[in-house]
Amino acid sequence: MTPIEDWEISGYLDGELPAGRREEVRRAIAETDRLHHEYVQIAAFDAELKALAEATAFSPYISLPARAATNRLRVFQLACGLVFLRVVLKLLPSALSVALGIVLMAALLVWGIQYLLRLAEEDCGQIAGAAAADSR
Asked: What pTM, to 2 d.p., does this model score?
């Protein structure tokens, strides 16, 4: 029989050894006190790590208020309208189209930045509220 390496005990515990080698390691652990002691230590450490991993695992809870969903729908509708307006502007004469396009893009940029800032403030408020509720 080939000598048993330390990593093979861990592999045996995890079920990663080939069938023939698994049987040899099982017999060696049963027959040798030193290997049995190492196996017990590794098994205990493995169980402790699994328990710690289970304790730290979590499923995040996320809920969007109905108002946020409605706002996002309005944003989508507005974006579709602006795309349609942009297509119409493309069909207009060149100088008028460029001037209206610049005004439209500037207005859209300003509105979009304001909207994103407002959403970020609402999200920060919700996160702070949730953190305060969790700390109680």
From this structure: 0.42
